[in-house]
Each structure stands twice: as structure tokens, then as C-alpha cells.
Amino acid sequence: NSTHVPSQHYYQNAHWLEGWGRSDIFTLATCYTSYNYDEALDLEILEGRFFSRGMSTDSNAIVINEATAKAFNIDDPLNTRFLEPGSEEDPDEFYPIIGVVKNFHFESMHEEINPVAIRFMPGNFEGMLVIKLGDGNMPATVDFVKQTWDDFDVEHPFEYSWMDDTFDSLFETEKRTGKILLIFSLLSMLISCLGLLGLISYTTNQRTKEIGIRKTMGASVSLVMFILSKETVKLLGISALMCIPAYFGVRAWLQNFAYHIDFNVLVYAFVLLVVTLVVLIIALLTV
């Protein structure tokens, strides 16, 4: 069981490291969980271990990610303790680090992987059960889990969600935008291709006599191709200039994501080259 799963906003708890002053207190994203959370989420242990039923001291232990060790310059995590501030009645509590897990995304891809602490809290029913299902009959498995839940708790209705669906919901805006852009892009490509074909056909019809005379006078194929395609190539050049704002717009949009691809200008250059070749091929076939 756990208070959170990746894609949810974790608690922000106050901590500091042993040896630091109270003025150095900081907040740290914190998830409370129990045994086997690492196996359910396929977390990779880099140092130490995860919570174990055979270790009674794990009730006051803590597991951190790589980002936490880096952010607070923790060179020897397994010999480091976190402190949680107490009160006048309750003393400060020490939480030794027993393990370091590889960085994992627990927030949207818009965010960098931030420091996170995983604390032990057995019997925590304010959160949820995290279940890793294998391949097989999912509906039957869900029915079995529901029946098991109902056998133990008849007061609270069984509710469930898939973690991949929860992650996908973080990018609903991007998916809707992508669908709209795809539709308009396809329409633009269709209109552009029809316009390009119409322009070349119009140019050819307008210059049929001129081309015939030039060929009779011994004009080369390359010269005729140049005559037929030069106006179209000019328009392609103007189109290429109009793509420059689009290129920078896409790059600016990608900056909203901490993890993104590098949108290379060569993509635009390649598309322009392909379209130019299509124009030249059509002109050649016309000749």
C-alpha cells in the first residue's frame, strides 16, 4: 500500500540532514509506502536495499532517489541520516538512508526528475493498494481483486485505475493539440500538392508554344526544365522562409518539457529538398 503512485503530487515534508542547522531545513517530495513498492513499480536499487520485513528498524528508515543524493551532495548515502523536525513535546526524528533508487518519473514530463524520499508506513489505508499484474485475463484478474477487496472491506467501494492511463491523462492537452495539428497538416499538404500540380500544369499550358519553339531552336532539356520550374522554385523559397517561424515555434514549445527531442533544422531542409525534387521530376516528365 502507498499514499502515492507516480503521476500524483507527492507530500512535501520538511527535512534536513544530520549535522545541518535548523536554518538549513528544506522540503522534500515524500511518498509513504510499505514492502515491495519497488517491485510493483520496477524501481531499480542502485545502493543498499528497500524495506524488508526482516528488519524491524525499517519503520524509521528512508529510501531516496539519485536526484536527492545529488541535490544535497550526499556522497555516502548509507551512512547518512535525515531528520524530521519535532516540536517542544516531541524530539526530532532520525531517518537513516537504507537505499538509493534510480531516478524515476513521478511527475509530468514537463518537470525534471526532482528529489524524492520514500518513507515506510505500514498499515496505511489513507492511500491505495499498488498491484502489479502479469499478462493474462485482465478482466478476470480485476474481478478477483475486487472480490478479495469486498471480503476484507465492505464499507468502502472498490475503485481502481491503471497507472499508464493516469500518466496519459497528464498529457491530454498535448494529445488534443497533436490531433488538431495532424488534421490541419494533412489538409495543408493536400491543398499544397493540388496547388503545386495546378501551378505546374498552368505554367506548362501557358508556355506550350514557347517550349515548342525553344526545343525546335535546339534548347536543351535542362533549359526547358529551368523555364518550367523557376517560378515554382521561387514560391518554394518563399514557403521555406515562412517555415522559419514554425521551426522556432516548435522549438519553443518543446522547451515546456524537461525531457524532449532536439528538433533539427535538417528536417525542414529535407522536406524542402523532397518537394523541390518532385517539382523537377514533374517538369522533366512534362518536357
Automatic annotation (TrEMBL):
GO function terms (MF aspect): transmembrane transporter activity
Keyword tags: Cell membrane, Membrane, Transmembrane, Transmembrane helix
Stretches that traverse the bilayer: 180-200, 235-254, 266-285
Membrane topology category: Multi-pass membrane protein
Domain ABC3 transporter permease C-terminal, first and last residues per copy: 183-286
One of the record's GO cellular component terms: plasma membrane
InterPro entries membership: ABC3_permease_C (IPR003838), Macrolide_Exporter_MacB (IPR050250)
Places the protein is found: Cell membrane
Name under which the protein is recorded: ABC3 transporter permease C-terminal domain-containing protein
Organism in which the protein naturally occurs: marine sediment metagenome
